[in-house]
## 1
Amino acid sequence: MMFSKILVAYDGSELSKKALKMAIAFAKEDPNLFIEVVHVYQFPTVAVGEGMFTPPPSVAMEYYNHAEEIVAEAKQELEKTTTNCNVVLKEGSFAKNILDHAKETGCELILIGSRGLGGIKEYFLGSVSHQVVQHSKIPVLIVK
């Protein structure tokens, strides 16, 4: 493989699982390949007038716990094949965190599902994969 370090954007959706499996297949072909997996979660916020309201701590904790479960799932799947991996959890803007993490860790390729768990938000905000493709300085492989 011509890449030594790749990033997989993982949200637990079927297409992100497919992207992770693809990265694992690449790692089987090249044992030196390092896989970075990033899961980004966002607390729901509601804008009312000029104010922003975030969920109470108990709801925020539920979001965080669910995100940790998704990360654990990715780690478990990766560790069946390789130890050359790192799985991280980030909070905030999906595309920005994916792109920033790829840059900070020196990734040379991003694997991302064409559609994630974003649902109807994608129609208003543009899909995360589209934003990543538009702003990435490195190749992006969209998994369908």
## 2
Amino acid sequence: MVSHKEAQLFYDHVAPRPGMSAVDLACGNGQWTRQLAAWG
């Protein structure tokens, strides 16, 4: 699971917005893919 602190640091640096593209290149179990999907 992505911790709240990890997610906040990523969000602060990347500033993801709905409609942006993202790629998860099979580097784990998809936890970041699910987090990105939750952000839109």
